[in-house]
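Quick one - first record:
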Amino acid sequence: MRKKVDIRRLKTGVPGLDNLLGGGLPEFSFNLIAGTPGSGKTTLAHQIMFSLANPNYRALFFTVLGEPALKMLRYQQQFPFFDFNKVNESIRFVNLSADLFEGDFARVLSRIAEEVKAYTPSLVFVDSFRSVVQSAKHVEQGASELQWFVQQLGIQMTSWQATTFLIGEYLLPETESSPVFTVADGILWLSQNVHRNSMVRKIQVVKMRGQAQAPGLHTFRISDTGIQVFPRAIVKPETVDISTTIGDERVQMGIPGLDEMLGGGLPVGYSLLVVGPSGSGKTILATEFLAEGARNGERGVIAAFEKSPSQLIGNRKLYPLVQSGHVGVIDTRSLDLSIDETLHDLIEMINRMQAKRVVIDSLSGFELALAPEFSEDFRGSLYRMIAELTDMGVTILMTSELEDRYTDLRFSPFGSAFLADAIIVQRYIEIMGQLKRAISVVKVRGSEHSKDIRFFDITDEGIIFGDTLSEYDGIMTGHPRIRRWKN
């Protein structure tokens, strides 16, 4: 029996990209980096090249652009991945614009072959390949000659024992007829879309022969450090025995009386949704949850979408936890967030801190912080995010702003209460001309819990529970008032 050929996978050096590719780029593969103008194709190619190139693994970068290579490098060298020491040492740039000027494909192919033979690179890049395609429209050879050129180039690239990349600007209709898409072993598609005032960049692995890649579109950013990809969270099939998912281990909430209402605390690994109107105490409850974790040696992470850094500093109970390193804060002040980007930051901080508790305050602010394109699928994206976090075994507390209509009992403005394993509702009740705060546990999946509605106050000491609603002689039958206080 013949032994299966092992294909080495090259690490791209682009954060998040290897996860999409199924572990990296197959060595000696023939790849196409395509997409719309300005989507980051050349930056992606340079980031991969500078990450992989070294004296024993050299790279050859052909430019067929009308501008000289020095002009292109002027901008690329602004990124930290650009290493001047590798230029002309491990990386060589060759400009083919003069050879392409007359549209002589054989001449261009011969020049590429000569340079590759002389330099013997392990990596070969041609940018922008669409310049070759466009030139076919101005010469007599036509499409048949262009197809011959692409096929010959592909065959030669394979024979060179090099990992090769063709970079080009393509519009979607061209993918159906362009021969280069058929020849390529791997295709990376980059796009950017403007939605209202937001710019959203996405990447898709259209094709990668010989290995499983992550399907669908994934968000990426071009920052001062280069490109970073945020793989879309994909819900994994359940592999856990349902009979073992509800154990005896519970986390304490840090509020006397609330753990009793929850049936002994919140089960570990559960997601808890705390809903209520403005000022009802959702953030204070979340802070107590993190503080109780710190007292028990459990670190926490908070993503505060409604609080600025100065407001967090003003929280006299939360700020010391942040300063001492017991609680990490996710930066949510960036514009045009995506849920996958936020999830990436959460997972990174959870792993770094070995955190056991996570607070998202609030879902209402989270939706507003998202780019419009992502907010349209908020429920679906939030579902994947919660599934990914709970799969890590952390316990999640989410808050959500909910208008208090007194007579209406609702649990989420998004219709996403099903995402939570447990739900706590805070609301106002008017008694004798005063607004009283009340709290109730609506559900704790797979566990007994209190059905009482209890009054509570917010003091300098935190949340203090009072009597149950049944202690008062009064009923609510569609009217916002409890009519008589029992003496």
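second record:
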Amino acid sequence: MDLGLKDRVFVVTGATRGLGHATARELVADGAKVVVTGRDEKRAVAAAAELGPDAVGVAVDNADPEAPARLIAAARERFGAFHGILISVGGPPAGFVADNTDEQWQGAFESVFLGAVRLARAAAAELEEGGVIGFVLSASVHEPIPGLTISNGLRPGLAGFAKSLADELGPRGVRVVGVLPSRIDTDRVRELDGLSADPEATRAANESRIPLRRYGTPEEFGRVAAFLLSPAASYVTGVMLPVDGGMRHGF
């Protein structure tokens, strides 16, 4: 299936590893051009180099108010266009309600929530008909995840913001979508599993609760995200799509 991604230009934040990088790889493989970002310049440049000449790396912090303008400018200057953005942010600190400090909440709000809102607003102002804004959120949008209190607090709010944005931008022909990963086999998920006393037992217990009985791969997530960003999904907007092996109960 041709997704219609050839020569379309995307910004993918948080793309030096994990889900963002997997999505950038799928976009490039289907003919798109991408600006990949991360906080560390060397890692951003290395991630882009791995993807080839249709990618460029830019070091930004999502919490920086100047980041959105820099990234959109980089897309236009390097590739001559800007068709969409996938906003993928790092996971906030783990912890239960009593564990997380005001400073951790504030830092996560600036990066995970307000940073994402700024990126989406800037993209919305620049995108023309056929443009798309995507959010990588979490299964916690629908059901809180034990030990991830800050994420549980912030990501559902971003999903609500994304739906509001989809309603506002729909008449302009600009789409807004969200992707909700759960147990995908990334460094972040392995780090979280490693916080338990027995990581192997924790993984086995988690897999037993997944109908497909395994963690997903970053590549599986990346293919779904790339499809949602593509013209092939041109009538899909305002949705939050779980990529979770069937873990979500209900519709």
